[in-house]
């Protein structure tokens, strides 16, 4: 069984029912809907397609809505792309103009308020570098430090400026409303800078949908300094190495990745490692050796999930990319001496009874060599605690809640099953026995550990460990 999960971005290369089914068979656990692209009608149809295919295959698949955030871009050029020459001046203006060799507009109308002389502007994922030499009410005059071909709508990163744009734009609020209407399982918030950004997102989510999980994307330098606070108010983080690697020197990103994953593990939160993991498979049928090592090292770092972006959204080999990623993960997890089961000694700031029960169950499962840890969970919280301790035995999570059933697809080492809500412990035990035999091939005499709240069906906190033998 593969423990680390796989997130796949869906797009033109992977949005048909046939390819979605192939992705699930290949190992996709989470479908990412990237709201930087596509209309609402497109995402509405894609959401339904994923749900229909997953139901047909009887597989839990989480759906994550990834909000665009305040992406700053240049505008359009009158006569196509322009070549910026090192040493020349170039103007970025908030006026609505068609660009030329000397100037271009920007989508961000607060640019002249946020930029100061000496600030750096990185265009097209850092390929072009400008420095501000003069700022007026409407224009930022720059000197080209690193030139290149600048095309329409390319991104602008401002690594040295304090950007005043909120993490939630008006577009994001409209997109969020659609995501809530559809019933997405996770919402990924882009360009998070502090815990306040997550609080503002929570304020927009109605109480009846409070069980949607929030993933904070770590891609701004400011987020690195606020990492513990951000993780503490999030359900998980995504180490989005694309923008992070533009705004920070590339050599700093690997240690930031390791620190962020470790901190998320210690705080009992989900971690997703993302961006360019198998980038070459967008065009090629096989990854580079460096890419294989990148995926492997993320797994060794303790990431809960690894993510594919363009590889599955627009690449030539979407299914092969997932299959390759799954095989790399499995090879690492099954390798001799693999450290993937080294969970934290105790989850930070969470010295609670359910936490102690989860740790005890993990240790006992290893000591007794049981076949599985079976967790009965209505909210998913017990399964999250169990995964944090990285037990060597499979975590079989049973839930009556359909959203939780799908959310569990993201959880490290968790195999999810949806069962009826039962009001007594004996009824749950009988249902678990039946499920273990029918779904997992358990045999009479097999030993399992059951973790749940007692009394059953009453929303009780996790307080029961039962050592159980299949009759």
From TrEMBL:
Q: Which domain of life is it from?
A: Bacteria
GO molecular function, a single term: magnesium ion binding
Q: Does the keyword Nucleotide-binding apply?
A: yes
- State one Pfam family annotation: PK_C
Query: Which chemical reaction does it catalyze?
Result: pyruvate + ATP = phosphoenolpyruvate + ADP + H(+)
Please state the pathway this protein functions in, per its UniProt record.
Carbohydrate degradation; glycolysis; pyruvate from D-glyceraldehyde 3-phosphate: step 5/5
According to its UniProt record, this protein's enzyme class is: transferase
Keywords, comma-separated and alphabetical: ATP-binding, Glycolysis, Kinase, Magnesium, Metal-binding, Nucleotide-binding, Pyruvate, Transferase
Cofactor requirement: Mg(2+); K(+)
Matching PANTHER family, A to Z?
Answer: PYRUVATE KINASE (PTHR11817)
Give the protein name, as stated in the record.
Pyruvate kinase
Q: Give the organism, scientific name.
A: Bradymonas sediminis
């Amino acid at each position: 069984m593969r423990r680390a999960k796989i997130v796949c971005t869906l797009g033109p290369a992977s949005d048909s029912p046939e390819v979605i089914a192939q992705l699930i068979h290949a190992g996709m656990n989470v479908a990412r809907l990237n709201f930087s692209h596509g209309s609402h009608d497109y995402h509405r149809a894609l959401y339904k397609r994923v749900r229909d295919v997953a139901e047909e295959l009887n597989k839990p698949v989480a759906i994550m809505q990834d909000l665009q955030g305040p992406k700053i871009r240049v505008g359009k050029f009158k006569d196509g792309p322009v070549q910026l020459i090192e040493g020349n001046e170039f103007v970025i203006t908030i006026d609505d103009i068609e660009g030329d060799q000397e100037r271009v507009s920007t989508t961000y109308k607060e640019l002249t308020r946020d930029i100061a002389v000496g600030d750096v502007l990185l265009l097209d994922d850092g390929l072009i570098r400008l420095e501000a030499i003069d700022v007026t009410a409407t224009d930022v005059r720059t000197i080209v430090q690193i030139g290149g071909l600048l095309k329409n709508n390319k991104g602008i990163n401002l690594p040295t400026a304090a950007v005043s744009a909120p993490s939630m734009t008006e577009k994001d609020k409209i997109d969020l409303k659609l995501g809530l209407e559809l019933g997405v399982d996770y919402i990924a918030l882009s360009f998070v800078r502090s815990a306040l950004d997550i609080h503002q997102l929570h304020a927009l989510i109605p109480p009846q949908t409070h069980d949607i999980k929030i993933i904070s994307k770590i891609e701004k330098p400011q987020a690195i300094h606020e990492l513990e606070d951000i993780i503490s108010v999030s359900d998980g983080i995504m180490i989005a190495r694309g923008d992070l690697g533009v705004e920070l020197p590339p050599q700093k990103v690997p240690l930031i990745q390791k620190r962020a994953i470790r901190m998320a593990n210690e705080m009992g939160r989900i971690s997703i490692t993302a961006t360019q993991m198998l980038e070459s498979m967008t065009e090629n049928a096989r990854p580079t050796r460096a890419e294989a090592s990148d995926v492997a090292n993320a797994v060794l770092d303790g990431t809960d999930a690894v993510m594919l972006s363009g590889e599955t959204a627009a690449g030539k080999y979407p299914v092969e990319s997932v299959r390759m990623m799954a095989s790399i993960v499995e090879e690492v997890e099954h390798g001799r001496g693999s450290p993937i089961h080294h969970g934290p000694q105790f989850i930070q700031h969470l010295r609670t009874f359910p936490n102690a029960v989860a740790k005890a169950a993990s240790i006992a499962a290893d000591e007794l060599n049981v076949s599985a840890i079976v967790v009965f969970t209505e909210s998913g919280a017990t399964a999250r605690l169990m995964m944090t301790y990285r037990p060597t035995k499979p975590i079989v999570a049973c839930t009556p809640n359909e959203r939780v059933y799908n959310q569990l697809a993201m959880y490290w080492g968790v195999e999810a099953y949806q069962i009826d809500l039962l009001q007594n412990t004996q009824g749950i035990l009988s249902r678990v026995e039946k499920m273990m035999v029918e779904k997992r091939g358990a045999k009479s005499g097999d030993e399992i550990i059951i973790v749940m709240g007692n009394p059953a069906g009453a929303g009780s906190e996790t307080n029961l460990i039962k050592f159980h033998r299949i009759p």
